[in-house]
């Protein structure tokens, strides 16, 4: 599947080169992006990172819009330098003029959230539940202490967990 995505990156670069009548350095492409972002352009590293899960779930629009969106950031940077706004008029010019696409700043893909276990900590205050992440719970087990902001007592693990 990433081959199609890499092919679309190349096509976007060829379109930009034909439009601006100049070559552009090709980026490294990574598929190690997770979370809510569909893609990220790292300007100074000439690197594109894409979210494979969002690509799989939204392949057609992702190839058309998201890939062009991220390539446009790198092309704009190579043309205009550091002083431009990320979604400013230079980037918008490339989206409209080169790719003939709307300059949408954000995607509207449905993002599936992972479930997370929360470890419930308490203090003497009435109705005081403090859900800790697994990472913070581990820090407590290694000796770190957290205090309640109200009563300034040490938060203690209740033995309960909750899945969110």
UniProtKB/TrEMBL annotation:
Boundaries of every SprT-like domain copy: 7-158
Coiled-coil regions listed in the entry: none
MF terms (GO), sorted A to Z: metallopeptidase activity
Domain of life according to the entry: Bacteria
BP term (GO), one: response to stress
Family annotation (Pfam families): SprT-like
Keywords: Hydrolase, Metalloprotease, Protease
NCBIfam families cross-referenced by the UniProt entry: PRK04860.1 (NF003421)
Protein's name according to its UniProt entry: SprT family zinc-dependent metalloprotease
Organism field: Pseudomonas urmiensis
């Amino acid at each position: 599947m990433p081959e199609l995505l890499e092919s679309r990156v190349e096509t976007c670069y060829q379109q930009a080169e034909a439009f601006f009548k100049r070559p552009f350095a090709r980026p490294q492409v990574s598929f190690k992006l997770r979370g809510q972002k569909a893609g990220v352009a790292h300007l100074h590293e000439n690197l594109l990172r894409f979210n494979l899960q969002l690509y799989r779930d939204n392949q057609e629009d992702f190839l058309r819009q998201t890939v062009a969106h991220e390539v446009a950031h790198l092309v704009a940077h190579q043309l205009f330098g550091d002083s431009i706004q990320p979604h400013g008029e230079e980037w918008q010019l490339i989206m409209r003029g080169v790719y003939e696409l709307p300059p949408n700043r954000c995607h509207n893909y449905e993002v599936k959230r992972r479930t997370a276990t929360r470890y419930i900590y308490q203090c003497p205050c009435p109705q005081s539940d403090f859900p800790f992440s697994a990472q913070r719970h581990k820090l407590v087990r290694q000796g770190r202490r957290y205090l309640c902001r109200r009563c300034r007592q040490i938060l203690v693990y209740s033995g309960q967990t909750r899945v969110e």
